[in-house]
Design brief:
Blueprint (H helix, E strand, L loop, with lengths): L2 H21 L2 E9 L2 E8 L7 H16 L5 E4 L2 H4 L1
Parallel strand pairs: 2-3
Antiparallel strand pairs: 1-2
């Protein structure tokens, strides 16, 4: 799959996850896809949630890996971390 198409597919899946996060007062922002890694920024209530690691790895990462073979990992980045 071409990288542009991969990014579009990643964004579609993230958009399907977003309403669940919104219902809990959180959100996410797609930052980048590079070398098989999806970089996202967790926002709102998700930033301080005790279940952040579980949501990120067991939820978001698992879904993306299952549906998009090019994805090998998902990382949450803080503003300064990724720049």
């Amino acid at each position: 799959m071409e990288e542009k198409n991969t990014v579009e597919e990643i964004k579609k899946i993230l958009d399907k996850i977003r309403p669940y996060l919104n219902s809990e007062g959180g959100d996410l922002e797609f930052i980048d896809f590079k070398d098989g890694i999806v970089y996202i920024r967790m926002l709102g209530a998700c930033m301080d949630c005790m279940a952040l690691d579980s949501t990120l790895k067991d939820g978001i990462e698992s879904l993306l890996i299952e549906y998009i073979p090019e994805v090998i990992e998902v990382r949450n980045v803080a503003n300064e971390e990724y720049l």
